Amino acid sequence: MTRLRIRTTWGWASLAGVVAAAAFLAVSEAVAALVSRGTSPLIAVGSFVIDIVPRPLKEFAISTFGTADKPVLLASLAVAVVIAAAVIGIVETVRPLWGIVLFAIAAALATAAVVTRADAGALAGVACVAGGAVGIAMLLLLTRRLRRWKLAAAAAPAATSPVEGARDGASVGSVPRPPSPERRPKPAPSDVQMDRRGFFILTGIVAASAVVVGLGARALNATTASIRQIRDALRLPSPKTTVPVPQGAELDIDGISPLFTPNADFYRVDTALTVPSVDPNTWRLVIDGMVDKRVELSFDDLIALGLDEYVITLTCVSNEVGGDLVGNARWLGVPVRTVLAAAGVQSGADMVLSRSVDGFTASTPIESLTDPGVDAIFAVAMNGEPLPLEHGFPVRMVVPGLYGYVSATKWVEELKVTTFAADTAYWTPRGYSERAPIKFSSRVDTPKIGKPVAAGKVPIAGMAWAQGVGISAVEVSIDNGEWQRATLSSPVNKDTWVQWVLEWDATPGSHYIAVRAINAAGELQIEEPAPIAPDGSSGWQRTLVTVS
Predict the structure, then answer these.
(1) Same domain, yes or no, for 415 and 452?
(2) Which of 127, 176, 337, 412 is deepest in the core (most CB within 10 A)?
(3) Whether this model's pTM surpasses 0.85
(4) Beta strands in 106-148, from DSSP E residues, in sequence order
């Protein structure tokens, strides 16, 4: 084919590549549903991307997209797959076998992403291998059909022109006489039409089959719906103890965050691209490592230890100054120290490496889990209901005073008692500190930047937190003026945030508002700005408010 004719096939070649890739994904999902649940190549590659992207890019994604970072990543991966498949289709059409080589490399990379996952089983790679074989076969079949069609089109004779008719006996310029009916040939489908029709039929069949098989297998492979039903039907016993909420714990101010963050609004930052589906009936918690005896608990065993209520504020290390990656909730759970005591922690251990069902690990200083004065728990309920799936159902860890990346392991299944010298958790080699006590902070909730307020009495209000210590005061400065003490809500305990408010006589114009907190130990909130890595942001929030 000439270069011009090759270019005219690029659109259909792209389609062939995309359809072959769809067949690869569909078969991979189908085989995974039968032999190895959770080995979707797209999800595995997405998880691999999460693991390897540089820390600044992770921080950018979290700060830019917030809790939508994972859907954005999946959408970006889907677009990348479509583009790569289209290119492979073009290469295979123009340079036979080269596209097959590229497809095989892509399938091998997907297989590697699957089998290297921490939660990969013995048959994890089977799905991608089977899908890759089918995808290559479909690419080969579709591109051969396409080349046959285009070669037939290139070889087809041009329609007879008047000049050519003159050469057959008519004079140039004369009107050719139509053939008599008995001499007119019967119409028959040309080879070009047959090849073109064959390509379209085959492409349609493969595409439709990929959609049906892929969606069906994905529905079977993802057991979220059934686990959600199990969660909804779960009935937890009443707690042995509850936390009283003092009068005045919540201020009645428009625009301020509530004392208890609704589950639907509670921040979610983790490395799980898809929410793990964990059946509490088969879930097990293993305590191992530097212990006197290995302990294994079922969900019923854990519940039988007795539940207590706790009110604890959690903070993500990715929370910028004034950010919203912080939330407060009521939790039902069992103290971690109770389970560790049953295993018997050996001397010399200084860290507990907790592991999630999806392979995530967190390194928690052992004193934060064994100190009777620290309410580190295995939580099973959040704000009066079993843990939401995206927040760790059926069991997660909650440790006050530490950033979540070293403590708040969701979907937890293992605790390894060890040392910081012997073991490294997920985030430590990625530039974050192995120990991460929360830096206490404060923020302005209202008035908000970009929303002008009317002149007159305006409440300046927000939240402040110093988990494990408590907040004693919040101060506000307007236009670099003197610091004024705000009114605090009544704290629930030392592990929860407090609300604060300062009545402001606002005058027209633009004004800068700064806020800082003082904790119960008398320490002033750090003024010097610091980025979120390696151990959390710091600084005083300063906001610009417009008064009309």
Answers:
(1) no
(2) 127
(3) no
(4) none
